[in-house]
Specification:
With 278 residues, the protein is α/β, with parallel strands linked by helices. It has helices at 39-47, 72-86, 98-111, 142-165, 180-192, 195-207, 211-216, 238-244, 260-263, 265-277; strands at residues 2-5, 11-17, 24-28, 51-55, 91-96, 117-123, 221-226, 248-253. Strand 1 (2-5) and strand 2 (11-17) form a beta hairpin.
Length: 278
């Protein structure tokens, strides 16, 4: 574990496990979580002989609660700062939700131009654009994201509990087997971070058009999404991602929720391993 300082003074926390001679996999977490959302994947892959790295996004987890830079450009630059600090090469980058947007921008702007990327994986990821616009008529109305902001500002603790116990893991579905521990762990990670970072991050994940990022990625890219994702609907995300990527493949999981990396790690982890080993 360590800390690095970015050019604008943010302190970014990171984990770095496994042999430094092994191929690295870097994990990019979703909003409003931390690198600990990747526990199931990091333990799995370090056990398979990989070097695993994950950082806490600025304003999230144990990274500093800076009041600036809560946008996709800074997220990607911060990821690049960690990669360059550790001098990671031949890296597989895996991003979930907002972290998928971070991966897309990092790979397009930094990783591939620097020759550091082997492959990428977008899991339940937000690109190309979540919000509804004239050019993206299938997106979610701005009122949805305004509602997120209002709920967060009014009572962040309750809002986070509602998200985790409801749509994020699909625990609001009939006959769902909800896990109180999973809900509390999500809540714990969220509440470690900055309310300002989380508030401004809503704009970052919903209004950042990443069409050109996806078009620019040349590395083999795996797109994974559940068709019961209530947070990032797959038809406006995965199905558009695969059309924009130069070298992509896609798998849609029937009935899986947004947080499928946790609820279905026993299925997702072997699929990730198979893609990485090819």
């Amino acid at each position: 574990m360590g800390m690095i300082s970015t050019k604008d003074g943010a302190e970014i926390f990171y984990k770095d496990w496994g042999s430094k001679d092994a191929q690295p996999i870097m994990f990019h977490h979703g909003w409003p979580l931390s690198s600990e959302d990747w526990d199931a994947q990091m333990l799995f892959f370090v056990g398979h002989g990989y070097r695993v790295v994950a950082s806490d996004r600025r304003g999230h987890g144990r990274s500093s609660q800076t009041d600036v830079g809560h946008d996709m450009d800074h997220y990607a630059a911060d990821a690049s700062a960690v990669v360059e600090h550790l001098d990671l090469r031949n890296v597989v980058h895996i991003g979930h939700s907002t972290g998928g947007g971070q991966v897309a921008r990092y790979v397009a702007r930094f990783g591939e131009p620097q020759g550091r990327v082997a492959k990428a994986v977008l899991v339940s990821a937000v690109p190309p654009l979540m919000v509804k616009t004239d050019s993206n008529p299938d997106g979610l109305p701005m009122e949805v994201f305004d509602g997120f902001r209002s709920a967060l500002a009014a009572n962040r603790a309750q809002f986070f509990m509602d998200v985790a116990s409801g749509p994020f893991y699909g625990f609001n579905r009939p006959n769902a087997k909800a896990s109180e521990a999973v809900v509390h762990n999500w809540w714990r990670q969220g509440m470690m971070g900055s309310a300002l970072a989380h508030y401004e991050g809503i704009k970052a994940f919903s209004e950042t058009d990443q069409t050109e990022d996806l078009k620019a990625i040349a590395a083999p890219t795996l797109v994974l999404h559940g068709d019961d994702d209530q947070v990032v609907p797959y038809k406006n995300a995965a199905l558009k991602q695969i059309d924009l990527l130069k070298n992509g493949e896609m798998k849609i999981y029937p009935g899986y929720p947004h947080g499928m990396l946790t609820t279905h790690a026993d299925v997702i982890n072997p699929d990730l391993l198979a893609f990485i080993k090819r």
